[in-house]
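Two quick folds needed for the group meeting slides. Do the first one here.
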Amino acid sequence: MSLYDEDIKFPIEIEQYERKIYDLKQLIEISKGLNSTLDYNVLIDSILLTCMGQMQLLKAGIFTHRSIDRQEFVLHRNYKGFEIDHKHEYLIPANSKLIQFLDANFRCYTLNELKELLPDEPSLETFLKLDPSLIVPLKGKGTLNGIIVLAERINQKGFSESDKEYMLNIASLAGIAIQNAYLYELATTDMMTKLKIHHYFQTALIEEREKSLKSSLPLSLIMMDIDHFKNFNDTYGHSCGDMVLKNVASVISSSVRQSDIAARYGGEEFSVILPHTDINEAFKVAERVRISVQKSYVLFKRKKLGVTVSLGITQFNPAIDISTKNIIERADKALYISKEQGRNRTTVLLSDK
């Protein structure tokens, strides 16, 4: 090889190394971003936006476990760009051949590749409805914990091998971040009701009070209690009481917003923190919960059992609430008034007098 040839190749090698260095720097920044939150929904959003930005995409979605105790994979609601048929559930069974295959083979796939590798696999129908260009498994602690689906590059090009390698690097970081968020979710969730535990509630309320002070945006709190809960345990047994708790918790979860923080305060008492919400809006949320619980019932040994709740609500007042203890005590006092006045009602209390 002549000196002239070496002079021609040298700048190309430099360019390749610079590209690799740039990619590594990007991955470090991506890793910092993904590990900056343990909030599951915020993390999913961050993963999808990262993929879209890095790969110049118009569509991105992610399949994650349905819940802590349900391992089937469902399309997370934070998907971007895909036109979804809301009558159809985008679900992949945990014991499907597709999940087993992706768990054992960590690489990027096109839909056509998976159809060839897994002919007649029924769970691929879920992907067919989305028509993704690239399917990327996510793994944390050696276990599959998600599947990214990507489609429609802005430049309308396909994915090169280097693109796929880069996506796998992002997937490795995302898989670890999801695993960490999942473990945090386990540690902060009441396993019976699937609501947040008491300690998480106390910490969250302190944080939301500080945010409200800085932003001057309203903050409200709902405290609620299941009416005559002891009667369920005494008459039908604790298994019935557990069903009542789960039923009420499910109604609460479906009645509040994603930004609200619902928790099991203790025993049969629940709480909901409502950021950026004044007392009038909080009353609407409380009444929505109360009415929904009243309309629901628990089916125990072929018997329909009606359930009601009493609620107390208040709004954070910077002039008098020197700590979160004041807010909780006032909402709890409002709850007590609801019980004193006949139960199955909502009481508003704005001052300690």
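Then this one, please, same format:
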Amino acid sequence: MSVFTQMAAAGHEQVCHISDAETGLRAIVAIHSSTLGPGLGGVRIREYEDEQAALTDVLRLSEAMSYKAACAGLRCGGAKAVVLAPFPRDREAGMHALGRAVDGLAGRYVATEDMGMSESDIALLNEVTPHAVGRSLEAGGSGDPSPHTADGVIAGMRAALRAADRPVEFKGLRVAVQGCGHVGLAIVERLIGAGAQVWASDINDEACEQAAAAGATIVDNDRIHAQDVDIFAPSGVGAILDERRISELECVIVAGAANNQLATPEDGMRLAERGIVYAPDFVINAGGLINVSDELDSEGYNAERVRFRVASIETTLDEIFEQARAERRPPEAVAIDMAHTRIAAGAR
């Protein structure tokens, strides 16, 4: 399938392949929609099986970013960048090469953190382009977005508990968290602090040790989805919810921070048919985007405004769950329709 055919399938506006001979950097930037504002999305550094896998990932991620921004009521569009690992050995030179490529898009894409990135990397991008957000608080930026993503997930869990007709109470709640990176660990810590019982997993031993130190019980990463819990919280890589794993779920709710949790569009219906409440990932995990996008506000970053918008994830999900129940549709489908409606309104 050609690149143009894949772009047309979801309505992408632009895809840029980047190759820097001096550093060896290889990256792809995808802009899905700029209707509501510049395409904002993280830079993801990871290994891919091949270039097609990287392209598929960046197309899916950038599309989800459009929906995430629209459902959160933000004045930005959706975009994403993936860097095919290994990243250039000279980190500074590699980031500068990426920054020049971002700058060449003249503000249509604004980069921020994702897998494999840090505040110091954003600072390196900013040395060659203004079109990167997520700077440290000391540098006048919004700081680490991970705590805000975690706060949004916790808020979304409250909405999901209501949708499942369960008490909105974390004390004694059983939760399995897959992925204990910056966001996953923050979710684990918040849950345990609220009195929940938490099982956790990660492919990284150090991440598991940190989760255990926080009070979580560590289980096999390949089987954590099958734990007998109230909530399964996928917070690592995407496409975890496929037909096989959905059939093995022992939870009532799926609510986590990972992007693109559904392996296929049909998997949302599979969850609904099993009576499992699914919090659409691009709605519940919007806290980090809300945080970094606030740097683009003409008045500058405002922490109180960010806290209010992150808390609003709960009410947005309440609306989605209510409509999904009334129309007997999967929440994912309702959320996508909400995003499309808001994007279409912005085009008028």
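Slide caption for protein two: The chain has a mean pLDDT of 94.
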